[in-house]
Amino acid sequence: MGFSGFPDEALIFYEGLVADNSKAYWTAHKGFYETGVRAPMLALMDELEPEFGPAHLFRPYRDVRFSKDKSPYKTHQGAYCEVGVEGVGYYVQVDADGLYVAAGWWSPGEQVARFREAVDDDTAGPLLEEILGALPGDLAVGGDRLKTRPRGAPEDHPRLGLLRHKTLHAGRRFEPEPWLHTPETLDRVRSTWQALVPLVDWLRRHIS
Fold first, then answer.
1. Which conformational region is residue 84 in: left (phi greater than 0), alpha (psi within -120 to 50 degrees), or beta?
2. Most exposed residue of 37, 108, 123, 201, measured as fewest CB within 10 angstroms of its CB?
3. DSSP assignment string, 41-90
4. Which of 27, 35, 46 lies closest to 10 in space, CA to CA?
């Protein structure tokens, strides 16, 4: 079956889960989750696979072992297409607030040093600035950042803001609209990801 949109009940399901994040609620609605949330997301990813590669659907269960928040279930369904570099790829999620579509780098660690080296480079760094500056205005750039400058970075570095990043991504939030329940959702996700291809390509080249 091709992708035909997310049903309105999917948003209502997540509204209920936000209000009652319990095993009782989940058990009572698990059947709908499978058919009204997971199945449409799988169908959406199948449609996008020829252009962006195979997707991973995130499990609905939270890892609460090291979290003060013991809510057992995620209040969104996310899916992710990695591009051959850990933590770099394309992301989409549906939740009670609608649809969020993004791409970039989400995996801090040893990649941070490679990212900062590339940002410091007089060719790669300005190119990243150019890529981010050319993004459509409704794409918000975000990521984890240091509150102060990285150790060794001069105060007058021309790309100090980028050097502070430990992850870097950009995305847009789509509020619930009638098109969300139609195949038009596929076009919205695809066009957003296409706009973010230059960012993903830069990250793939420079932090792999």
1. left
2. 123
3. HHHHHHHHHHHH---EEPPSB---TT-S----B-SEEEEEEE-SSTTEEE
4. 35
